[in-house]
Write a structure and sequence with these properties.
single chain; Aspartate Aminotransferase, domain 1; 2 domains; 7-stranded mixed β-sheet; 3-stranded antiparallel β-sheet; 12 helices; 15% strand; globular; binds pyridoxal-5'-phosphate
Length: 369
Amino acid sequence: MKRMTPQNLRTPGPTPIPDDIVEAMTNPMINHRGPEFAALIKKSTEQLKQVFMTKNDLLILTASGTGALEASIVNTLSPGDRVIAATAGAFGDRFVDMAEAYGADVKRMDFEWGGPIDPEAIRKALHDEPNIKAVLVTHNETSTGVTHPVEEIAKIVKGEFDKLLLIDAVSSLGCIPLPVDAWDCDMVGTASQKGFMIPPGLSFISVSERAWEAQQTAKMPRFYFDLTLAKRSLEGGQTPFTPNLSAMYGLSRALDLLLEEGMENVFGRHATIGQLTRDGVRELGLKLLVEDEAYASDTVTAIKVPEGVDQKALMGKMRTEHNVVLAGGQGKLTADIFRIGHLGSVDKSDITEVMDALRVVLPEVGFDP
Ligand SMILES: *Cc1c(COP(=O)(O)O)cnc(C)c1O
């Protein structure tokens, strides 16, 4: 296959990979039951704990992000367990579907797409149904560009009701603060191809003491994602099954880069770029799906397709004439919005390029502000 020219890849995953991470990934294969791998996984696991801000167990799985989320469900729940799953977008919906697929009795709580999950509604639901075992929430809803108020939700779920809290942090961890221990989150799952600047193929999950306790009696079927196997293997510097070695090399370099930059600075960079993106969109005369700055995501921005503009033509021209790859909408918003991803390896010039290209393309596809 011919080598492709790098694009300004503004999808909310996969995200661009810095050159020295690409270089790290060209390392030769090693024995994943040997000492070099043991050193690699032990170091990366400790560094990942810093990124997750946790002392909990942290496991690296060879899977996309969905694998980590599935692991959070099957390791803590039994068929028939009553759980709350709050959703305001395509990824919230997927968390519902996964829990249902494994036989959980899901109390589905729907919130408006483009708005936040209301913590008060969760408090009321937990109050009304004392038999709820767990609450499932998405930290950053990638399909709408909303960051849900997980800190407030955690105070209720953990502080007031002491239930299990399972979090989809696939498009937020390492970009938007999610201090796992400070917020007392039981299971938090994320993936390599979003904030971590490496290809798809790895997911990371933190597991609290409470989650391990739940695991002992959880009866949902599991094999590949049985986290006791992963924990036991890790003690010997291994994984139960063959790990994605190339991505592990990339991860090691990526974690060095993140920790050298400092997580506070990484969060600050995403906040600055999120703001730059939203300001740029407004300046072009476009409408954001999420107007409220309190919930606007600093990793992905959704923009309403203006009246009379062909979304596919817009995205096509951006890609073919300006080398900028945008994302469309998902689920019921598929044709109504387009999205700009700004997570992982991203700086101001990447966003300036997007805005410059939009300024040229919008009038060509019928935009009349
Ligand atoms: C990307 C994403 C997922 C799915 O991750 P995969 O790596 O495709 O399995 C889940 N949740 C959120 C919030 C995401 O952004």
